[in-house]
Write a structure and sequence with these properties.
The protein folds into three domains: 14-89, Roll (Vcp-like ATPase, Chain A, domain 2); 97-306, 3-Layer(aba) Sandwich (Rossmann fold), CATH 3.40.50; 312-401, no CATH class. Helix content is 42%, strand content 21%. The protein has helices at 29-40, 58-63, 123-126, 133-149, 173-187, 202-209, 215-229, 243-253, 259-275, 295-300, 312-328, 341-346, 356-365, 377-401; strands spanning 3-5, 11-21, 45-47, 49-52, 64-70, 76-78, 82-89, 97-100, 108-115, 162-166, 194-201, 233-240, 281-287, 303-306. A seven-stranded mixed beta sheet has the order 8-9-11-12-13-10-14. Helix 7 (215-229) runs parallel beside helix 9, helix 8 (243-253) crosses helix 9 (259-275) and helix 13 crosses helix 14 (377-401). The structure holds adenosine-5'-triphosphate and magnesium ion. Adenosine-5'-triphosphate is lined by residues 126-129, 169-175, 286, 288, 310, 314, 318, 373-374.
């Protein structure tokens, strides 16, 4: 969300509305936009993370799966004073494919998705970070893509469209890269007809390929180049665990790394440098060990964002979203509304039918602590068990008091 000038010359908040169209809908984007704007006209104040999936109007029922105002880092929004940008999209259900290099070999160069992908949907909303991290990244990357598209002279304003997310394992770096690409593919769907997401795993690249020197790397990048050549496509290249590439180069100075491996690393870095010259490419990288990344690579990244463990509030919200998912799939019933900590604060922790369950889990029972937010089934059930035990205990006390 950013400040923009509206037609009347006064500044208004720009609100992004994401409209997921049903796969079989044949309605034009213009019609969908018109109906969605009319629908939103009936709503005023909403929370920054609001999704409608049920509609009275027949057109929307037939053609639209959901209308979402997806800005969880925002509190409440008064739609009347806002400048609405409506993004209309469908999800790609093809799933993961691999970029194979040799017809007869099982050499998978990288994983590949067409965006927006059904598999990536919802990741953005499920990720909880410190205030502003997601919005800043999204705004920053969309600005760099916009600058490149408009041919802003990069000698005057320097940017590379390279993002580095670093921090301890299991804190959402890879997920955030995927979510960011998905979000941008939706937000920029008027400019780019579709987006590609290519995930290079540096780790397997090393273990499988280093004896093949840089030849296979060149081949892999030729494939990526073919995707980039389509100017209507926005291409995201994710290099996960980028330190394993650059660490090898550093080790070469110490003379402890085989020369083949060094050739692979140099080849990857040269190729990355080449593809990032294209305006429709964004390079996303992650690392657990920032100190092992070589300085030349670090310099290439415009944004170096540390992704640390989430706060207690973050962990609570992650558990709420897991609980919500289990309710949606009817594994836990009845389905009840769940509130984030921010929403509980907004209503001053007042008990009501709506807030009761979230309050119970947070205020009385949510004493669960963990160092990473990865929610394994065991941990999740453990936390729930605790909540349920405490609830039963409290009820027993109340009965005995009565
Ligand atoms: N801040 C967070 N909010 C919500 N879920 C999170 C968060 N951090 C991690 N998770 C969940 O934990 C799991 C692991 O996250 P992910 O693989 O993205 O972490 P990572 O930082 O890339 O880890 P690694 O460094 O080991 O590769 C994912 O399922 C993700 O949804
Ligand atoms: Mg990862």
């Amino acid at each position: 969300m950013e400040l923009v000038e509206d037609c009347g010359g006064t500044s208004a908040l720009a609100v992004h509305v994401e409209v997921l169209v049903k796969p079989r809908s044949t309605a034009s984007k213009t019609d969908v936009r018109m109906h969605v704007v009319a629908f939103l006209d009936h709503h005023r104040v909403i929370t920054g993370n609001h999704r409608w999936t049920e509609f009275d109007e027949q057109f929307l029922r037939q053609n639209v799966d959901s209308v979402a105002i997806a800005d969880p880092e925002r509190g409440t929004i008064d739609l009347k004073g806002c400048n609405l940008t409506v993004h209309i999209f469908t999800l790609n259900n093809d799933g993961l494919s691999t970029l194979n290099l040799e017809e007869d070999e099982e050499l998978s160069a990288a994983n590949h998705w067409l965006l927006p992908a059904a598999e990536f949907q919802g990741i953005w909303e499920s990720l909880v970070f410190e205030d502003g991290v997601k919005t800043q990244l999204l705004d920053y990357v969309s600005t760099t893509i916009f600058f490149s598209d408009k041919n802003v002279n990069s000698n005057l304003i320097t940017w590379n469209r390279v993002v580095l997310l670093h921090g301890p394992p299991g804190n959402g770096k890879t997920s955030l890269c995927k979510a960011l690409a998905q979000k941008l593919s939706i937000r920029l769907s008027d400019r780019y007809t579709y987006s590609q997401f290519v995930e290079i795993n540096s780790h397997s690249l090393f273990s499988k390929w280093f004896s093949e020197s840089g030849k296979l790397v060149t081949k892999m990048f030729q494939k990526i180049q073919q995707l980039i050549d389509d100017e209507d496509a926005l291409v995201f290249v994710l290099v996960d665990e980028v330190e394993s590439l650059t660490a090898a180069r550093n080790a070469s100075h110490a003379g402890t790394e085989p020369s083949d491996a060094i050739r692979v690393v140099n080849s990857v870095l040269t190729q990355l440098d080449q593809i990032k010259r294209h305006p429709n490419v964004v390079i996303l990288t992650t690392s657990n060990l920032t100190e092992k990344i070589d300085l030349a690579f670090l310099d290439r990244a415009d944004i170096k964002q540390k992704i640390g463990p989430p706060s207690t509030e973050g962990i609570f919200n992650i558990y709420m979203s897991c609980l919500g998912e289990l309710m949606k799939c009817q594994i836990i019933s009845p389905r009840q509304q769940l509130l984030t900590l921010h929403e509980l604060e907004t209503i001053s922790f007042m008990e009501s039918n709506v807030s009761q369950m979230s309050l119970n889990i947070h205020l009385k029972h949510f004493t669960f602590k963990c160092s990473t937010p990865t929610v394994t089934l065991e941990r999740f059930l453990g936390a729930l068990d605790k909540a349920v035990d405490k609830e039963l205990e409290d009820r027993a006390k109340m009965v005995s008091c009565a």
